[in-house]
Amino acid sequence: MEAAVSIGPVLPRAPRIASIRPVKLGELTDGDLIERVAEGERDAFEELYRRYTRPVLGLALRRLGDRGRAEDALQDAFAAIWRSASSYDRERGQGGAWLYTVARNAIVDGARRRPEPPLEPPDAPSDESGPPERAEASWLSWRVHGALERLPDHERPVIELAYWGGLSQSEISEFLDVPLGTVKTRTRSALARLADLLEGELH
User: Fold this and answer.
1) Which of 88, 87, 61 is closest to 74 using CA atoms?
2) For residues 189 and 157, what is the distance between their CA atoms, to the nearest angstrom?
3) Pairwise CA distance, residues 186 & 192, whole Å
4) I need a surface site. Which of 15, 25, 119, 179 has the fewest CB within 10 A?
5) Rounded distance, CA 86 to CA 43, Å?
6) What count of other Cβ atoms lies within 10 Å of the Cβ of residue 103?
7) In a structure prediction context, what are the per-residue pLDDT tens digits for the chain, which is 203 residues long?
8) DSSP character for 92?
9) Cα 53 versus chain centre, distance
10) H or E stretch including 43?
11) Cα(93)–Cα(38) distance, integer angstroms
C-alpha cells in the first residue's frame, strides 16, 4: 500500500473577477458629478453644464430680461459652481437643489454688479411699447420679483424653475430630486401665496 504523497495545502479556487464596466458620466447622479468637479474633473463639469444649461439660462433670462446679460450670468453661475463644488455635502441635500441655489445666487449677485443699462430712445417711431407701457411692465416685474423673494425656500424653486427655467413639473421633480406629487403640491401652494401677496397690486 502506497503512502499518500503530500503536495502541500489545498488552496481555495480563486474567485472569478467580474468584468468591470466603466461608469459613464451620463449615468452618474448630480451629486456624484459635483463631487468629481470638486476634485477638478473637467469632464464631470462639462456633463453638469450639458444637463443644466437650459434651466440656468432660463433663470438668468427671466430675471435679467436680456439675452446677452443672461449668457454672461450663465457663465458666472457655472464659474460659481466650479469654485463652490467642494462645499457640497450630499448628506445635506441633493445635487440638483445645491446647484440651483448656487446658480441662482450667482445670477442675483451678477444682476446687482451689472445693473440693467438705461434704454436708449428709438431713432424712429416703432410698434414697440412706449415709455409708459415699459415703465408699467418694469413695475409689475419688480413686484413679482419681490413677491417671489417672500416665498418659503421650499416653494420658490418650483416657481422659478417652471416660469423662469421653462421646466416641466417632471423635470423639476428630477432637478430637485423630490417626488412629482410634492412638486405639484408646492406649486399650488406657491401660486396661492403669490396671489395673496400680489392682490390689489396688479390692477
Assistant:
1) 61
2) 12
3) 10
4) 15
5) 16
6) 24
7) 555 555 444 445 544 544 444 567 778 888 899 999 999 999 999 999 998 888 888 888 877 878 888 899 999 999 999 999 999 998 887 788 888 889 888 888 877 766 555 444 444 444 454 444 444 444 455 566 677 778 888 888 888 888 767 778 888 887 787 899 999 999 999 888 888 877 755 44
8) G
9) 9
10) helix 42-64
11) 16
Query: Measured between alpha carbons, how far is 203 from 198 in angstroms, rounded to an integer?
Result: 9
Q: Which residues contact 155 (CB under 8 A, 6 or more apart)?
A: 186, 189, 190, 193
d(CA 64, CA 71): 10
Instruction: Dig out the grid coordinates for 199 from the structure.
Output: 392682490
